[in-house]
Amino acid sequence: MIITNKYNLPEVLIRFAQGKHYSRGDAHRSVTQLINSPRIVALEERHHEELEQDISDVLFSLLGTATHYILDKYSDESTVIREQRMFATVNGWRISGAMDRQEITAAGRIIEDWKVTSVYAVMNEKIDWEYQLNCYAFLVRLAGHRVCKLMINAVIRDWAKRNVGKVEGYPPAPLHQIEIPLWTFEEQEAFVKERIALHAATVMDDAPLCTPDERWMKPSTWAVQKPGAKRALKVFLVESEAQEMVAGKKDLEVVHRPGVNTRCLNFCRVRQFCDFGKQLGESNEADSNSAS
Fold first, then answer.
1. What is the CATH number of domain 2-204?
2. What's the whole-model pTM score?
């Protein structure tokens, strides 16, 4: 991977970026890769030496690394297992997962993961966290241990005290704990096998297009607003409902807001190697039929 420094940031960040080598161990896929888009993972592997990353993009990773370092340094509980990587072979594929923290209790193990994340991620359903921690629980259960709880400890990087009590659902503190639903072992096993099948098919053939969820697809909407206004009075997912609202009203209009593939446009680092990503160009318009 090519490390760049577009904003002339301190050189120490370059050394951090160069020294931060992610390893899944002796496995076909890590849990993080397994729950990710097979297309993205495959393209990252094929074009690893061509990929670019600016050191400005590793700042939040630096915060995450610092958080883990501090917790490891000052954690001395005898009933806690820290930074353990576990392995399992399922349907011929070896998978691995590194858990931040496992607390051993009489009821079973509590699996915890620390995230340096955003308010938006905490306030909205983050299904990837549920996938990730249940895959970890699957590995722990396969090793013969009971699991009783899954937890996310979210360090919120953009938390603001002024929003507490004013924004509905806003976390009351910059550290927020979230209990994640614990699936049955059968549900976890079925999910892992399904993900392995998708990744295995991608290795053997051309990578299928990412799903709308994997592209962080925002659907097309129709906004009812006054002509020239910047804000909508109401936004509809169905055009006919918007047209019904403006019927007979000359001071209102319907403005189509095309859907957006948010991840493709702003967050996918393999976009230049992806046919779908290249077709998007600089346009924010999404072809809702492309996934069919």
1. 3.90.320.10
2. 0.86
